[in-house]
Amino acid sequence: MKQRDREEREELWLWKKPVLTLRYFFMELLVTLRGWMGRLWQHRQTALGLLILLVLLSIAYRIEGVHQKYVRFAEKKTLWCAYWAGLGILSSVGLGTGLHTFLLYLGPHIASVTLAAYECGSVDFPEPPYPDQIVCPQQEGSISVWSIISKVRLEACMWGAGTAIGELPPYFMARAARLSGIDPDDEDYQKFEEMLDQTEASQDFASQAKAAVQRLIQKVGFFGILACASIPNPLFDLAGITCGHFLVPFWTFFGATLIGKAVIKMHIQKLFVIITFSRHIVEQMVSLFGAVPVLGAALQKPFREYLEAQKAKLHHLAGEGESWLSWLFEKVVVVMVCFFVCSIVNSMAQSYAKRRRQEKYSQKKTK
Fold it and tell me: Can you give the pLDDT at residue 110?
């Protein structure tokens, strides 16, 4: 019965059943909003305190005075941190189905800062317009890998913290299922339980690797979670479910995940991007394109033009217009964001269908 219900839910896609999917999406949205309103009412004293604080901050924001420079600084840093943390959550949520915002946003941001640092001979880009636009300062300074790492540390750590926060929903779901003994009818959780039941000989390589990670987390605890979170790997996908299922304490799980993802892993990824996009390596890569038989010159030309345009832009010189390479990348980002939004609509519609089924089953049991 559950298998049939799951198959029916999986038919709810915008391109298969657009009307029904949108209807269920808006119904689930209303249910979610009503749930949040109920929680706010339950914690109305805390909500009232936060509302008063927001009003006071709004008044301080609008009144002129010597405090305005501190207000503007705090506003800029808060929005900057929230932006990157939000992108990190989007990248981590959904057990691998999320929008991989490191490849689309943070990676290119670090790469552009690296290229600019080597071209300008400094990381002291004037603010504003940095980070919206990088303009070389008039005086050059000394640069190093560490100075570039320090320049992008805040946004990288905030992104890493966001990915750690994104691991919390599967943790709480698995923990609640283990404590209550109720099957959550979640596909990822059921795959995890099937993996636990299988013998090692009957598992494929990927399942054996995930089982090894699960055993490491279960036996070593904090340092096992820290080791898995610190290394860029796809095997950490089930860490939240694993820790929730085996009732690992919240701060043990979240503390290790936060340190691993926001500090250790992010410095590894930053170092990799910075070394990859340092001036001499980029120039060697572009030169290698020219060695490709027949297509070499055609492949090399757009990349060389793009680099020259970026260098001209860094020195605040007028370029020849937008490169088709940057135009193509922007369109790829737009397509991926649209696909991610559609996946959210599909997921919420399927959640509402699952909610309806559960209500019908509970009504039958009470009769």
Answer: 92
> Which pTM value belongs to this model?
0.75
Distances (CA, A) of 218 to 7, 24, 215, 228, 257: 33, 39, 5, 12, 14
At 258 the pLDDT is 94
User: Alpha-carbon distance 227 to 224, whole Å?
Assistant: 5
How many CB atoms lie under 10 A from the CB of residue 118? 17
What are the residue ranges in the chain where pLDDT is below 70? 1-7, 94-99, 181-210, 232-238, 306-326, 364-367
Separation in Å, CA 50 to CA 37, 44, 46, 55, 165: 15, 10, 6, 9, 22
Amino acid at 291: A
Closest CA to 270 of 100, 108, 63, 64: 108
Report the length, in residues, of the chain: 367
Q: Give the pLDDT score at 322.
A: 55
Sequence letter at residue 347: S
d(CA 146, CA 121): 14
> Rounded to whole angstroms, how far apart are CA atoms 220 and 215?
8
Alpha-carbon distance of 242 to 210, in angstroms, equals: 10
DSSP 129: T
Q: How far is CA 22 from CA 9, 52, 105, in A?
A: 13, 37, 29
